[in-house]
Amino acid sequence: MVRFEGDAGSVSIVGTAYHLRQLHWHAPTEHSVNGRRYDMELHMVHQSAQGKGRRHRRPLRDRCP
């Protein structure tokens, strides 16, 4: 797990800025895309100044042979 205390970037959703606070990985993935599971998944945890948490999930590629 990687935690960020300073400015590590942000996304804006409906006028609210969500700042990147944490990265962590899951292997294998917890989610699927079109029924397909991947070897690893990255969770990017963002939080607004009001304390609202929001997670963004992204499957990563399969392991290299």
UniProtKB/TrEMBL annotation:
Q: Which GO terms describe its molecular function?
A: carbonate dehydratase activity; zinc ion binding
Where does the record place the Alpha-carbonic anhydrase domain?
A: 1-65
Gene3D superfamilies, A to Z: Alpha carbonic anhydrase (3.10.200.10)
Q: Which domain of life is it from?
A: Eukaryota
Protein name, please? Alpha-carbonic anhydrase domain-containing protein
What residue spans carry the region label Disordered? Answer: 46-65
Q: In what ranges is there compositional bias, type Basic residues?
A: 52-65
Pfam families per record: Carb_anhydrase (PF00194)
Any one Gene Ontology biological process term? Answer: one-carbon metabolic process
Q: InterPro entries under this entry?
A: CA_dom (IPR001148), CA_dom_sf (IPR036398), Carbonic_anhydrase_a-class (IPR023561)
